[in-house]
Amino acid sequence: MSTKKKQSFLGGAAILASAVAIVKILGAVYKIPFGNIVGPKGQTYFNVAYNIYNVLLTISTAGLPLAISKLTSQAHTQGRENQKRKIFSTAIWLFFAMGLVGTLLMYFGAERLAAFMNEPLGYWPIRALAPAVFCVCLLACMRGYTQGQGNMTPTAVSQILEALCKLGLGLALAWYFLQLGLGLDIAAAGAILGVTAGTVLSLLYLIFYLLRRRDRQTALDEPEDSGKILRQILAIGIPITLSNSAMSIITLVDTKIVLGRLRDIPALADAAAELFGQYTFGMNLINLPPSFVFPVTMSLIPFAAAALTRRDHGEAGRIVSSGFRIVAVLAIPAGVGLSVVGGPALQMLYPLRQADAIAAEPHMRWLGIACIFMCLMNLTNVILQTYGKEMIPIWTVIAGGVTKVVMNYILVGNPDINIHGAPVSTLCCYVVIVGLNLFFVWKYSPQKPRYLQIFAKPAAASALMGGAVWAVHGFINRALAAGHSGYTANAIATLGGILAGVIVYAILVVAMRILRAEDLKTVPHGAKLARILHLR
User: Fold this and answer.
1) Which of 177, 196, 314, 372 is deepest in the core (most CB within 10 A)?
2) How far apart are CA 172 and CA 212, in angstroms?
3) Mean pLDDT across the stretch 472-477?
């Protein structure tokens, strides 16, 4: 690989990783004010629609755009301009048909889909999200086409536009519909309309982008016929689609089971949507750390792949171990902190839903620890994919998903446990996935990672940090209880506890020499940070 091509590859990967990180963070931030506006019931109605949409989205966009990208890249490299145009013109009609079918299914089947999910009030949110399936299918085709030519910027910009529209318009519509006195299901549909509008805006941007940069030069190459191109797209894309659809389908089935099992308990039947919504309050919070860890895992791909291509197994092993150490340093304290003060943090973030935030506090003790394994799952999946073992993460995700579904059926259906079984099954799901992934990473790594050395120090430092957070939060809360409102005292105590935890943990990281200078190589400004921390 030439230096220019390598820089272009790394630059494109950095653009996409940054865009995805921004989108994930915006998505996580969106759910906090949304939860304050609509509460747990409204959030459940939203999730019912979004989980159905996510399955259709994964089926239509998980593998086929990659096939378009690959075929376009091959034609682009060979200078076959007519072949590129034929690939796009063939693919766009395929995606048009898939998007139309998905949209019609969601729109006209909304009532049946809501009944299938055991939440009839999900009807309007499902209908409001239906047009997004059509738009996203066309978006996926256009993104695959531009990425195949080595241009990642249109994808990045369109993704950020989509997320910003969802954040701004969706929240505004949800609030406005509630002010009009409409129901929570209509408010959730308003929030969903923000998602739909975001996909429309992104589609218009990409259409405008492609029309402005349309290549009208005459080319001499003879393109393949549409039937052959279509068969190539399907041959490449279908296996990837089937493998990547596993988690979306499992999440959909799991949501149906949790809501159904709650409704099977006579005393809780009417409160099922509210209880499930309280559980998702906690899920919204634990999805934040993986969003920040994601760019670290993405940065591993080009560097580790380059080392493996050079057959430099020693360098590849060092990069993998560094990735483990960085993620451990970030994920373990985040998970411990959420487990210790996750409940008070929910009360601080949801001032309009204090009773629901308090009800969600027990979930956080389990979900905080689950957050650690979510981050490690992302990392280990990337490592296995870099090693060329793409199918292993699919099977481990299925194993974890089956664990989650079975445990939720048993635990949530128990009247004495009910919704409190959901976070336990979530933790067990990610423990199974990460446990299997760690085994396979160790098995296929040329240089075996030393897990005890990697995780022992961050775990010890995080435990000490957790103790400091608990002590400082309790002390401040008791000291302010007499002179301030309960919300103010808790908010100050929570922020004070988090600050104390950050200080204690930062000192321990340096004092215990948990990180090395080489660990920061792939991090922006990592060398400068290593000098400041006196890392060797």
Assistant:
1) 372
2) 33
3) 93
